[in-house]
Amino acid sequence: MIRIDSLTVTRGERPVLDNLSLAFGEGGITALIGPNGAGKSTLLHAIAGLLPAGRGRVEVEGCDMARTAPAERARRVALLMQNDQVTARLTVEDLVSFGRWSWHRGRPGPRDREMVAQALAQFELEALARRQIDTLSGGQRQRAFVAMAWAQETPWLLLDEPLAALDPRHVRDLMERLHAMSRPGAKGARSIVIVMHDLGATARYADRIIAMKDGRIVKSGPRALAMTGGVLSALFDTGLKVVRVEDADTVVPA
Ligand SMILES: Nc1ncnc2c1ncn2[C@@H]1O[C@H](COP(=O)(O)OP(=O)(O)OP(=O)(O)O)[C@@H](O)[C@H]1O
């Protein structure tokens, strides 16, 4: 369970998260949606415990994240930040191995090697394992970062716009994979919170949405109920509607 109580985060003069309260349970994909500057990334950072303790409280499975040591936090949530970059010369395998740091602290064991191998397989990176990160395409690099977060083996996976550099096939492949691994009861199931701008993918794959605007929650709940044309149109200040095409929902201009 993630529980957020009266959370206010101020940058400069104004609150970017404004007295926000919210709770949601394990399992499935929770999509954070909303216009640029709504506060989605800030909320993800707050859940990961990366903001200084301020007004309000964020708990992940009963743990007050702003007051928990980094290594402890890193066993509860893995955060993939937006536009994560590496400047060092690293291979894909090296990068994915970083996901295991909180477990081995510099002395990788068999479990660490097994999880890195699984991560490379899960995200179709085996053929790229020895390539330097800075020689990859944007989409390949993005997959390598998601694999690193996955290898951290946390119950919660927080992903900030992981679809940004992906072509349609890789959007579908990644979302299918995340969807499968977030099913309650799946082997090693993860609960996934994901910032998404792709409303079509949100309509198709999210189980739950949290719609944010101006640092507040406009609507949250099961996707099928909360993600309506009315909510989306008000959220993005443009006419949008949810329609069913073949077996899945998608979003089109109203
Ligand atoms: N370090 C900072 N200093 C000042 N303002 C900041 C800082 N970080 C974020 N903000 C402001 O906080 C607000 C929320 O930013 P945030 O990145 O959380 O939004 P977002 O919903 O993730 O946006 P986007 O969809 O564009 O990524 C924005 O107005 C942003 O300019």
TrEMBL record:
Location of this chain's protein in the cell: Cell membrane
Keyword Electron transport carried by entry: no
A Pfam entry, by short name: ABC_tran
Entry coiled-coil feature ranges: none
GO molecular function: ATP binding; ATP hydrolysis activity
Keywords tagged on the record: ATP-binding, Cell membrane, Ion transport, Iron, Iron transport, Membrane, Nucleotide-binding, Transport
Record-level GO cellular component terms: plasma membrane
CDD domains associated with the record: ABC_Iron-Siderophores_B12_Hemin
Gene Ontology biological process terms from the UniProt entry: iron ion transport
Location of the ABC transporter domain: 2-239
Highest taxon in the source lineage: Bacteria
Membrane topology field: Peripheral membrane protein
Protein family according to the UniProt entry: Belongs to the ABC transporter superfamily.
Name of the protein described by the UniProt record: Iron complex transport system ATP-binding protein
Organism encoding this protein: Vannielia litorea
Higher taxonomy: Bacteria, Pseudomonadati, Pseudomonadota, Alphaproteobacteria, Rhodobacterales
